[in-house]
Amino acid sequence: MPSSRHVVVLRRGQIYHFDCLDSQNRPIVTEQDILRNLKAIVADADQTPVHEAAKSSVGLLTTENRKIWSQLRQTIHNSSPSNASSLEVIDEALFIVCLDDAAPEDLGELCGNFLCGTYGLSGGVQIGTCTNRWYDKLQIIVCANGAAGINFEHTGVDGHTVLRYAADIFTEGLMLLARSINPKAPVMFKAKLSPHAKASRVKPGPDDSEPEPLDPSPKKLEWELSNTLLTGIRFAETRLSDLICQNDCKALEFTGYGANFIKTHGFSPDAFVQMAFQAAYFGLYGRTECTYEPAMTKAFLHGRTEAIRTVQPSSVNFTRTYFSEAPNKEKIQALRNACTAHSKLTKECSQGLGQDRHLYALYCMVRRELDSAPSSPISESGSTKSNQVEMPPIFSDPGWSLLNTSILSTSNCGNPALRLFGFGPVAAEGFGIGYIIKDDGISVCATSKHLQTRRYLDTLSSYLLDVQQLILQIHRAANERTGNFVDHSGVLREAKTGRAIAHLSAQTPAQTPGLNALELEEEPSTSGYSFFDSVEVQRLARRRPRNTSVGKVLQISEY
């Protein structure tokens, strides 16, 4: 909200807040002030026994079904003025900071903590970090070991918007580090400390009046919870715990190569990785499934995303060719064709030429008409009994259901500010795959419900290494010399190894006593291609060889 001036902090399910901006969006707290506030919050929250805090974690209600949460939220709002004010404080906050008491070391567990929190029972009470969330707001989650992540609800914002936020914060941190070394170094955020801040050396002027008093001290929200609300929290926790147990989250940080290698060999990095997902799934399950990837449409007013359907005739041909007995060159050519087609499709979707969003909008319009006509129920055939409104055949066709069941739901959200990026699966039998393509590596976070998530990532890693070897083999074969060559110093060298065969001179090998022209010299080979063209060979052969034995040889120390 434009009027937001405070942040909300969660610790063990308990909720605190403090002001951090004045009405002109100038900070009223320094870095040290924030640190002191957070330490005070942690100290206060940890005084409450974890079991008692977990039983009254109101944030658990935000994980409920939307209709149930809407009813319980209204109950909270109407139960007391204090509860209504607490909800207003949370709704109007800039964002939520979740201070977790867990410190996951495994990458998969770390991603799972940022996605849905950890699961942990003690005495029949859920005490995992899953109780320390408020999913209706953008959340900055910080683990006990300092690892930090962002969790956001997708309805109101897209990943690339949050990525911009994370990237700016990360960049500002680097620039502040540079300024600590060089005071003249620039920074991104130019806002000066508010004159209302305790640490400010400037007194407030006539234009600095505040409509409401500012208080940077942390304050705890107190809730009046009836038995109905306590029961709702209990059932919400049980449902959430089931969901956590049903989902598996694993991570892969592939370091074999990244965007640099992919682009060097003429592939689009995103298309290359998309085909890797196809090959890994085909290699593991022997079939191709519906795949989704978002394309940004922010060039349009209110534009968000369009669906890229990765599975196309070219991608199917690639996976079948790759796992066949076809020659390596044919496999890589099939990969190149599939990547080219995917890049073209991505561009078209970004330009608003996709079909998914358009068809979905039409479907929603038909559903709205049908829902507003209670006298015209839908028959099993997909048409209405009164024939006033009919469901178009396309929306009752099995193909429509197949198209909207994304077994592989993927998204590329790359930036140096992020280490990993992920989300949950959108189909019961599918994977949710978030990936970041870096210059020298590829980071992948995969989730699923009771599928072989780790095995899928292992298969993906094996494919990435295998296809690299095929590309390099074909590249070497294409650039291999067919015959021996003469380098710029007049040395005849082998085509395959580059090792010297003999120095060319006016004398022929037969005229040189004790010299066999095919005898290899113990001379280190030179890399690269000959500087001269082949027409220069005869002239080089007549050139007088250099005398490299003149002078005293110096002893070089080892290093």
Concise synopsis of the structure shown:
Belongs to the carnitine/choline acetyltransferase family. With 559 residues, the chain is an alpha+beta fold. It contains 16 helices and 17 strands.
Describe the structure using short key phrases.
single chain; 559 residues; Chloramphenicol Acetyltransferase; 3 domains; 6-stranded mixed sheet; 38% helix; 14% strand
Explain this structure:
The protein is of the alpha+beta class and 559 residues long. It folds into three domains: 241 residues, Chloramphenicol Acetyltransferase (2-Layer Sandwich), CATH 3.30.559; 180 residues, Chloramphenicol acetyltransferase-like domain (Chloramphenicol Acetyltransferase, 2-Layer Sandwich), CATH 3.30.559.10; 58 residues, no CATH class. 38% of the residues lie in helices and 14% in strands. It is built from 16 helices and 17 strands. A six-stranded mixed sheet has the order 7-6-3-1-2-8, with helices on one face. Strands 9-14-13-12-10-11 form a six-stranded mixed sheet. A three-stranded antiparallel sheet has the order 15-16-17, with no helix packed on it. Strand 10 and strand 11 form a beta hairpin. Helix 9 crosses helix 11. The longest helix has 26 residues. The two termini are 63 Å apart. 28% of the residues are buried.
